[in-house]
Design brief:
Alpha-Beta Plaits; three-stranded antiparallel beta sheet; cytoplasm; alpha+beta; five-stranded antiparallel beta sheet; Chitinase A, domain 3; Trigger factor, domain 2
């Protein structure tokens, strides 16, 4: 993750962000207190006490009650003719909730404006007292952005990376391209397998009995490990030593028996820590033939004029990718150094929003890998949230610092820059750009895009100033 792309749920000091587990800016314009919420950082927490006059409360009760009378459908009464007393008894909880939602927002906004406070979390209502004919009293608790000084940030320095592409890197990529288009050709001569050959084999493996009864039962229940016409490089660095030793010097038609003890951390779980007895038949010896770097080969790869054109475009792509990657890593190091340099309290609501965003990305990745929804529900989300907390905290701290430095450097984002990002998103999502713009404006996404672009520009400026 680059330094300019560190937090999805960005603080908006102009508004109270609603309690939400995702895209918390969807109602940034609301300032409406909620009755419950996440734990808050005491150093960033503020409280306002509010009292609403009894006559305004009574007026709200009458207005809400009349609305309920018009909508209520109760057997024995005509529509709109249900007695007010019955409405108040039957729908007491709903009436109270609607009165609170009618009265609270305006008075809360007035209270924070008067106090000069700018909430960035959804306010939590406590000590609510509501009775018809009496003043409405409540407290609202919320978080604000901390005071952050970035004085001296110019003193932070990190090593500037060498982003030049080397000939070794270019040649290695050319070899990978050739290897991807290589063919396997049979070896006609009568000889044994040597390093560099590819053995075409058929094999069957069985897990040896373990002394532990539970492991024996588990092993017996597993299907044999088999493979037909599998290609294995003799002496290859990715080939297990036991296979190299057994195959080296053997000939087609030969049958081999040997055992392989797999380490506990072996990548394939059913083999990890097991000893497998293999029966292997060598079917053929083959050589991998890589294509020559000719103009014809280049044209097979794409719309290239010839091999030199392909090499140049590959070099440009690799150089650009290396430069972007190393500069991104350096910007991350700069942000890490800034986080270490400045200590300040961080609103817990922003941290929890970032935990939500990280978990959301993780769950989407699991879903793409084929994990079923019912299996996801079995995950220990409390443990997962705890595990994400420290990383989320640093991401929020990094974003807040970038925002303050952007203020100090007077970095602005133009409408043209936002439009370019929208055009890319429109192509990626296959959604008409104006439809996308409207949707992102309504759910706060456009503001997040603008903030992300601003941070990216700030990260680029810091790279120019602080990397040396």
């Amino acid at each position: 993750m680059s330094s300019a792309d560190t937090i999805e749920t960005t603080p908006n000091p102009e508004a109270a962000a609603p309690e939400s587990t995702e895209h918390s800016h969807a109602h940034d314009h609301d300032h409406e207190p909620h009755h419950h919420g996440p734990s808050l950082n005491p150093e960033c927490t503020r409280e306002v006490q509010i009292e609403v006059a009894a006559d305004e409360v009574s007026k709200a009760f009458r207005t809400v009650t009349r609305r309920y009378q018009k909508q209520a459908r109760i057997p024995g009464f005509r529509a709109g003719k249900v007695p007010e007393s019955l409405i108040r008894s039957r729908f007491a909880d709903g009436l109270r909730q609607d009165v609170v939602e009618t009265v609270l927002p305006t008075h809360f906004r007035e209270a924070i404006d008067k106090a000069g406070l700018r909430p960035i979390s959804q306010p939590q209502v406590t000590d609510l007292h509501l009775e018809d004919g009496q003043p409405l009293k409540f407290k609202a608790v919320f978080e604000i952005l901390p005071e952050i000084s970035v004085d001296g940030y110019q003193d932070v320095h990190v090593a500037k990376p060498d982003t030049e592409l080397t000939d070794t890197e270019l040649n290695a990529e050319l070899d990978r391209v050739r290897d991807s288009r290589s063919t396997m050709e049979p070896v006609a001569e009568d000889r044994t397998l040597v390093d560099g050959d590819w053995a075409q084999i058929t094999f069957r493996g069985e897990i040896k009995n373990e002394s532990n009864e539970a492991e024996t039962t588990e092993a017996a229940a597993q299907q044999p490990i088999t493979g037909d016409d599998v290609m294995i490089e003799v002496g290859g660095q990715n080939t297990l030593p036991a296979f190299n030793e057994a195959l080296r010097g053997s000939k087609p038609g030969q049958e081999l028996k040997f055992e392989v003890s797999y380490p506990e951390d072996f990548g394939e779980r059913r083999l990890a820590g097991k000893t497998i007895s293999y029966d292997v038949e060598v079917k053929a010896i083959k050589k991998k033939i890589q294509p020559e770097l000719t103009d014809e080969f280049a044209k097979e790869l794409g719309e290239y004029e010839g091999i030199e054109d392909f090499k140049q475009k590959l070099k440009d792509h690799l150089a650009s990718d290396k430069k972007r990657r190393l500069e991104g890593e350096t910007r991350d190091k700069i942000v890490e150094a800034l986080i270490a340099k400045y200590q300040f309290p961080v609103p817990e609501s922003l941290v929890q929003q970032q935990v939500d965003a990280r978990l959301d990305r993780g769950l989407r990745a699991l879903a793409q890998q084929g994990m079923r929804t019912e299996d996801m529900r079995k995950l220990d989300f409390n443990r997962l949230r705890d595990a994400q907390h420290d990383s989320a905290l640093n991401e929020v701290k990094g974003s807040l610092l970038l925002d303050r430095i952007a203020d100090a450097e007077k970095i602005e984002v133009t409408d043209a820059e936002v439009d370019r990002e929208l055009e890319l998103l429109s192509l990626q999502m296959r959604e008409p750009i104006e439809t996308l713009r409207t949707r992102l404006t309504d759910d706060g996404g456009l503001a997040r895009i603008r903030e992300q672009i601003r941070r990216e520009k700030t990260g680029g400026l810091l790279y120019q100033k602080l990397a040396s």
